[in-house]
């Protein structure tokens, strides 16, 4: 009975490990956010794998059940880990959250002009271009940009395709 | 195997239902509607599988037979739903980085001019719609000519500010 319910909550325990390791690695080891997310995810994944190998060998679980439950729990853990990574990314990159944080700092509130001054779109574009250039996703040559490593382009195409399927348009401004 | 099969089928059913409903009419409060569609599908689906288990068995389809299996399906389904909803929030708005990469790709072998981004990506496209989103989502309100956070907005900002403190992370982001 214990093993059955342990198998159900196993991805949640793995997620707790993921979150704890991620926070510790940023706070104390001072690694980058991206690396900490990958590190935390791997530790949680190893925990999940360890408990499944225990379930298979020590508790002599049936092979068919073992594989199907493993797939379910690895998918559950991956989905939860993805949500957590998205939450961290939201706090760093999302424009809405940045604006909310600026408004939070100002007790009297901010006018549109004040918000636009603080959250400068030109600066934001420069930051993002710098990130894309330093990551090699785009290349600057003779004052013109070209696609570098195509991974970001593939992601962009998938997102545009998903927008078309779900929302029926390529852009929010269409 | 039942958990994997039933959880996946229910998720696909909810996803199809959402796509069909979105084609008919795009709701105003999309996230609330998504939560309603997915969790109603889960509850009705599980109840249906439970109620018609004997008939389904006669057809050769083995439905969940214990409470533990139903909980497992619910957790699996919920994690996939949350992962989809966080992806959906990213589909709702145009990411500047994705837009940049697509513009460079569309420019072809001649590349994209360095000044074109700053001309194209103005405050009207990048910042003002996100400020309007905050008001629509009741995270901020307009008081005279100033924007202020609502209680909901203060809570949201507090979560992200607390989390940054917890990680002791000071990078500017953006």
Number of strand elements of chain A = 3
Low-confidence stretches of chain B: none
Radius of gyration of chain A: 22 Å
Query: In angstroms, what is the radius of gyration of chain B?
Result: 22 Å
Q: For the residues shown, what is the average pLDDT of chain A?
A: 88
- Largest interface: pair, residues per side: A-B, 83 and 79 residues
Measured between the Cα atoms of the first and last residue of chain A, the distance is 55 Å
Pattern of helices and strands of chain A: HHHHEHHEEH
Strand order of the largest sheet of chain B: 2-3
Binned strand content of chain B: 5-15%
* Major β-sheet strand ordering of chain A: 2-3
Shape of chain B: extended
What is the ordering of alpha helices and beta strands of chain B?
HHHHHEHHHEEH
**What distance separates the N and C termini of chain B?**
44 Å
Main sheet specs of chain B: 2 strands, antiparallel
Gross morphology of chain A: elongated
Topology:
The complex is a heterodimer of chains A (174) and B (174).
Chain A (H helix, E strand, L loop, with lengths): L1 H26 L5 H25 L5 H31 L1 H11 L4 E2 H7 L2 H14 L3 E4 L2 E4 L3 H17 L7
Antiparallel strand pairs in A: 2-3
Chain B lengths: L1 H23 L5 H22 L1 H6 L8 H26 L3 H12 L4 E2 L2 H5 L2 H4 L1 H9 L3 E4 L2 E4 L1 H17 L7
Antiparallel strand pairs in B: 2-3
Helix pairs in contact in B: 1-2, 1-4, 2-4
Keywords:
heterodimer; A: 174 residues; mainly alpha; two-stranded antiparallel ribbon; B: 174 residues; extended
How is this structure best described in words?
The complex is a heterodimer of chains A (174) and B (174). Chain A has seven helices and three strands, in the order ααααβααββα. Chain A has helices spanning 2-27, 33-57, 63-93, 95-105, 112-118, 121-134, 151-167, and strands at residues 110-111, 138-141, 144-147. In chain A, strand 2 (138-141) and strand 3 (144-147) form a beta hairpin. In chain A, helix 1 runs parallel beside helix 3 and helix 2 (33-57) runs antiparallel to helix 3. Chain A is elongated. The model of chain A has no long low-confidence stretch (mean pLDDT 88). By secondary structure, chain B is mainly alpha-helical. Chain B has a two-stranded antiparallel sheet with strand order 2-3. In chain B, a hairpin with a 2-residue loop joins strand 2 and strand 3 (146-149). The longest helix of chain B has 26 residues, at 67-92. The two termini of chain B are 44 Å apart. The mean pLDDT of chain B is 89. At the A-B interface, helix 1, helix 3, helix 4, strand 1 and helix 5 of A face helix 1, helix 4, helix 5, strand 1 and helix 7 of B. Strand 1 of chain A pairs antiparallel with strand 3 of chain B.
